[in-house]
Amino acid sequence: MPRSSLQAPASVVMIRPHHFTPNAATAQDNHFQTSAGSDPTTIARMAHAEVTRAAAALTGAGIRVHLFEDQSTVTPDSVFPNNWFSTHSGGHVAVYPMYSQNRRAERRQDVLDMLKRSYRVQDIIDYSGLEQDDLFLEGTGAMVIDHLERVAYAARSKRTSEILLERFCTHFNYEPIVFDAVDAQGKPIYHTNVLMCIGTDFAMIGLDAIPDAPRRREVAERLRRGERDIVELTHAQIADFAGNAIELQGRDGLVLALSSRALRSLDAAQRAVLERHVALLPLDIPTIEHAGGSVRCMIAGLHLSARSPIPA
């Protein structure tokens, strides 16, 4: 019987975009964005194909993928649904306020309706109205959640309000751990899930991205309290999205979904540590990575109990 884990969801939500493009409105503070270098029609076609292949690969590994279509021309980052909602054991769902105005239209009632229809949802806490107060918390981009140890790690940024983080942690029973994080050029890292990934028995983290040495040690010690192997990532590996991965429950056991670029950036010793705990599942998404996010951003994990059978 394959091992399962509260940390690793067996079902996910993904959004397949029909008009994908890197979002000019988020480029100012997302320094991982790059020019796609092609005409918009080609970029959109390539991104559509990348999501199609990624969803098929996850399905092939035994992960249930709820794939939604986005034909809007005003939601360039819709491929990253983990920023606007998250799910939690016990039937709890959170909906989040988004920093960029053109990302707020990504929130979809049909996704929430599917969750209520297919899974046991007790409540939905909607924080999105706090956008009017300039309070933002972009889901599991802003937070990297340890579901086993009940900790929410968060790097300070324009997209992460400490006030709202505290409120979320009170509502959902997590311990908040906040820190500053910067890239190799000393610029603030926009989302926490770019620099760290927490699995059941391992964690990947760019500790060098935390400039305050005492805080760096505290974060590392808190991660080790869960008796995990720690894989330290370099700034170059963070830039290649090695930290932007997610552990999932596959048919044959735990898998780590990450991009092909991220996997190439890891050295043999790092891969060996990970492969003690998970099967590596690389997804080829070079077009989407121009938008400054990678596999973790594309996947909203469902930490909910399914109704039996799951309705279509």
TrEMBL record:
InterPro entries: Amdntrnsf_FN0238
Matching Pfam families: DDAH_eukar
Gene3D superfamilies, per database record: L-arginine/glycine Amidinotransferase, Chain A (3.75.10.10)
Domain of life: Bacteria
Protein name per its UniProtKB record: Amidinotransferase
